[in-house]
Specification:
6 helices; globular; Rossmann fold; alpha/beta; 2 domains; four-stranded parallel beta sheet; 171 residues
């Protein structure tokens, strides 16, 4: 098998996450596949995030894995260009629209982010980390670092994108 024959896996991180989320998976898959991680912070629409991810993936055909918000983007990639995707993994995500309560929670977190972004991150930690790992300093600090690096602006764009995704419009 030549390098050009190696499978490629495009990884889509969740809310306020970046490539650090996937470091162990990338290392474990290094003998079998090439991996790239999309930046899901640059625009405020799921369709825009999907288009940017598609434009940045370095090969024509690839496998796709999306975690949480990355799953929403993966579903949009499947709408935009399904012929490029060889396999799809959706992790801890949903194809269902947000509930009215979920939308209100997003709006409240966006409002809080305007004055106290660190409080938003702390509020989200129990949703981003399994309860058994909340005492794991490395895991929790990595989440905090990714969130801080993404920043309030990316968080607001991501929330806007999630609220405006095709299955949640009009809520």
């Amino acid at each position: 098998m030549t390098d050009t024959d190696r499978p490629h896996l495009l990884l889509l991180p969740g809310l306020l996450n970046d490539a650090r989320l996937w470091e162990r998976q990338i290392a474990d898959l290094a003998d079998f596949a090439d991996c790239s991680v999309a930046n899901l912070t640059a625009t405020d629409t799921i369709s825009g995030l999907a288009a940017a991810a598609l434009a940045a993936v370095p090969v024509q055909r690839f496998a796709l894995a999306g975690l949480s918000m990355g799953g929403y983007v993966a579903l949009e990639i499947m709408r935009q260009d399904p012929g490029r995707v060889q396999a799809l993994a959706l992790l801890d995500t949903s194809a269902r629209p947000d509930t009215p309560q979920g939308m209100e929670t997003r709006r409240a977190l966006m409002k809080l982010a305007e004055t106290d972004f660190a409080a938003v991150v702390e509020t989200l930690l129990p949703k981003m980390v399994h309860p058994s790992r909340l005492d794991d300093v490395v895991v929790v600090e990595t989440i905090r670092e990714m969130a801080a690096d993404a920043g309030k602006g990316a968080f607001l764009r991501q929330q806007q994108a999630i609220m405006g995704r095709p299955d949640s419009r009009g809520r």
